[in-house]
Predict the 3D structure of the following.
Amino acid sequence: MLVTDRTLCPDLVTAVDAALSGGVDVLQLREKDLPDSDLLRLARQLRQVSAGRALFLVNGSLDVALAVGADGVHLPQAAPLIERPRPDFLLGRSVHSRDEALAAAAERLDYLVAGPVYATRSHPGAAPAGLRLIEAIVPAVSLPVLAIGGVTAANVGEVVAAGASGGAVISAVLASPDPAAAARELRRALDAAWARVEARP
C-alpha cells in the first residue's frame, strides 16, 4: 500500500502514476490538512490515475470516497466506524497495539495497518514499536495486517517474516527521486519475502 504525502514530492499525481507503474497495487489518499474541496479535487485526479491499476482508498472521508467511486475508506484509529455503503466496499483501520487490533477486528473490517514499526518521518514523535507489535497482533486477529512506519525495501522482509501480509509505505517511494524504481524495488523485496514464507516447512 502506498499512502500519500504531497509534501514529499513536487507533483503528487505524477509521483503516484510512476509508483503505480512500479508495482503499487493499493493507494491510500491521506492528506488530512486539505480542505474538503481540495481533497475532492485531488481524489478525482488520483482515482483517474489509479483506475484499473490499483485499489483506491480515501483516508477518513466516506463522502469523498463515494464521490469519486473509491474502493474503500481507511479509518484512523480513533475514528468512528462507518456503515459499509456496498458489499464490496473496503474498510480498514490504523492500530497501534494488540488491544486496538482486537477492537478493530470486532468491527468486521477488511484489513488493519499497524505501526509505527520503525522510526518514521511522518510521525517523528512516535516511538517505534518494533516487530513485536506485528508479532503480537497477527496471531490475535484473522485479518490481513500491513506494517507501517519506516518500512522500506531493506526491511519489508522482516515485517513479512514477523507475520505481516505486507507493508504500507510513504517516504520510501514518494521521497525517492525515482518513485517507479523505488516501487519496483519494494515489490521485488515483498515478492521475495512472500516466497520465503511460503517455502517454510
Observations:
- The domain at 2-198 is CATH 3.20.20.70 (TIM Barrel).
- The mean pLDDT is 96.
- The helical segments are 12-21, 36-50, 62-68, 98-105, 131-137, 156-161, 171-174, 179-198.
